[in-house]
Amino acid sequence: MNSLAALIIIASILCFATYILIKVQDNKKLANWKEKRRTGFNVGEDTTKPTSRKAWPLSIVAIVLLLISQFFVIVPTGFVGVVSHMQQIQEKEWSPGPHFKWPFVTAVENVDTRLQEVKLAEVAKGEDHSFWVECSDKTPVNISNVRMSYRINGSSAAWLKSNVGDVSVIVSETVLSSVVEDASRQLTSITVVNRSLIEPEVKRLLQAVVDEKYGKEVSKIWDESTEEWITTQTPRVEIVRIVIGTMEYEPSFIAAINAKNAATQLADEWATEDQRNKDRAEAERIAKKSATDANTYDIRQMADAQKYANEQLLITLNGYTLANKWLDVWNGQVSFVDGSGNNMIIDISAIIAEALTQQSNVPQPTSTPTPAAPVADIETSTD
Question: Which of 78, 92, 299, 313 is the S-S candidate for 114 at Cβ 3.0 to 4.6 Å?
Answer without folding.
Answer: 78
